[in-house]
């Protein structure tokens, strides 16, 4: 995984057919996805339950590129090894998930995965500053985590300040929640490079009819790249 600030589209399989994850991952990658975003929810940190390391291990062989695992669970530490062994390239934990995020990030890097730090809409950047040397990605939530298909909460100011804080460090800024061709440009302009999109990617398509996935991915990418000044 070489570092680049080019726009990356990361479809969230939360919006895929849960009975067909393998084929859905192959379909979105074939249709132009850069990363595959995997939302792990525990029914405790967030009010919804999805799946755990066994499902991640099962879908891993169906993903050619980056498997980006977003843990919405608490506690986190005892499960890190399991997600690393399942083949996660990036493991992202929430700053709100416990009192010892520093230890959690150390454990993620020690597992061999890249370390991501997620921050909810109500969380500021104060705590992030002390962690910059131990993270590879900050995931700025633009919805309150737990469900797909929610309305975008504008975090432009936070993303701009985060981008300035990061400076030349090789840390991705990922945006998660409510990304569409209308909202993605705001975040790309503010400094984001990874755009997670669930409903806006999977809408209108299926494994049997994957072309809409490609159209949706291209629409989000084109809007975001236009906002950053990259020729499209
Ligand atoms: C929310 C998840 C998101 C979500 C995005 O808790 O972390 O990844 O699936 O879904 P959309 O794009 O539908 O908002
Ligand atoms: Zn997510």
UniProtKB/TrEMBL annotation:
Substrate binds at residues 12, 70, 146-149, 176-178, 198-199. It is an enzyme of class 5 (isomerase). Signal peptide: none annotated. GO terms for biological process: pentose catabolic process; pentose-phosphate shunt. A divalent metal cation binds at residues 37, 39, 70, 176. Its EC number is 5.1.3.1. This is Ribulose-phosphate 3-epimerase. It comes from Roseinatronobacter thiooxidans.
């Amino acid at each position: 995984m070489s570092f680049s600030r080019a726009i990356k589209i990361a479809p969230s399989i939360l919006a895929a057919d849960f009975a067909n994850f393998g084929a859905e991952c192959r379909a979105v990658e074939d249709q132009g996805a850069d990363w595959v975003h995997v939302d792990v929810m525990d029914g405790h940190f967030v009010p919804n339950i999805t799946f755990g390391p066994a499902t991640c291990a099962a879908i891993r062989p169906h993903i050619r590129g980056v498997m980006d695992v977003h843990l919405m669970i608490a506690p986190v530490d005892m499960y890190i090894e399991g997600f690393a062994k399942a083949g996660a390239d990036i493991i992202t934990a929430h700053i709100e998930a416990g009192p010892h995020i520093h230890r959690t990030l150390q454990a993620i890097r020690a597992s061999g995965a890249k370390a991501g730090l997620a921050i909810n809409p109500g969380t500021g950047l104060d705590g992030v500053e002390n962690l910059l040397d131990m993270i590879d990605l900050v995931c700025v939530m633009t919805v309150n985590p737990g469900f797909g298909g929610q309305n975008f909460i504008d975090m432009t100011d936070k993303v701009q300040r985060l981008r300035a804080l990061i400076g030349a460090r090789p840390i991705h800024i990922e945006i998660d929640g409510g990304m569409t061709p209308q909202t993605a440009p705001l975040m790309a302009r503010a400094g984001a490079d990874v755009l997670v999109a669930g409903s806006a990617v999977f809408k209108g398509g299926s494994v049997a009819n994957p072309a809409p996935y490609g159209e949706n991915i291209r629409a989000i990418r084109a809007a975001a790249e236009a906002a950053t000044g990259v020729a499209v």
